[in-house]
Amino acid sequence: EGKGMIGNIYSMGLALQVLEATKNFYGPRKWDCAQAFSVVYAHDYQQPMAIAQVLPALVGKSYLDAAGLDCTATKDMSPGQQSPLSPALVRQGLLTHIHVNYTVTNTLQGKPFNCSISVKVPRGSTLLRVMEVAAEENAETYSFTMEQTSWGPYVTSIHGLAGSTEDRTYWQFLSAGKPLDEGVGTYKPHDGEHIQAVFSTY
């Protein structure tokens, strides 16, 4: 689905492990993994959890193979070999800073609000940095709280409004109306991009 994307970039590692481990049970249809692996090769993974899940699939293994792993088989690997997980080359641009339009919207609970701001951040900044700059410029509107998880920072509240498992509410981040496939700690907006934080239900 989605030109090789299975779920989102975070679920790719486990999905590839499962498909590789069970491919012999899919006959007579053969699973074509080329598109899925091209998605993985093109992504600059930064979260340790995501890397740990995708690495086995890159060598045709799964977590099930860990018990029989022969560590001596890797002794001749050249440390100079480039890993497919090496960070992508940074594209040099004329702009040293970018402008990102950031909107927070709530129509679910309490008094509705729809606030927008344009912030200037260094090129290559994450969405988390965009949110921090917005909060620095207008704390009353754009302040937020978050908690650290094994997948990186998770936004728990914006504008004093917190998500709740009881109410099945959370803050969803979108670009051009589509949910982001990365978290705020790794997603890097481009110049002129419009990021929306929408209080949503699941």
TrEMBL record:
Keyword Transport belongs to the record: yes
GO biological process: cobalamin transport; cobalt ion transport
Binding site for cyanocob(III)alamin: 8, 53, 154-155, 180, 202
Gene Ontology molecular-function annotations: cobalamin binding
The Transcobalamin-like C-terminal domain, residue ranges: 124-196
Keyword Secreted part of the UniProt annotation: yes
Keywords: Cobalt, Cobalt transport, Ion transport, Secreted, Signal, Transport
Matches recorded under PANTHER family: COBALAMIN BINDING INTRINSIC FACTOR, TRANSCOBALAMIN-1/GASTRIC INTRINSIC FACTOR
Name of the protein in question: IF factor
Species assigned in the record: Sterrhoptilus dennistouni
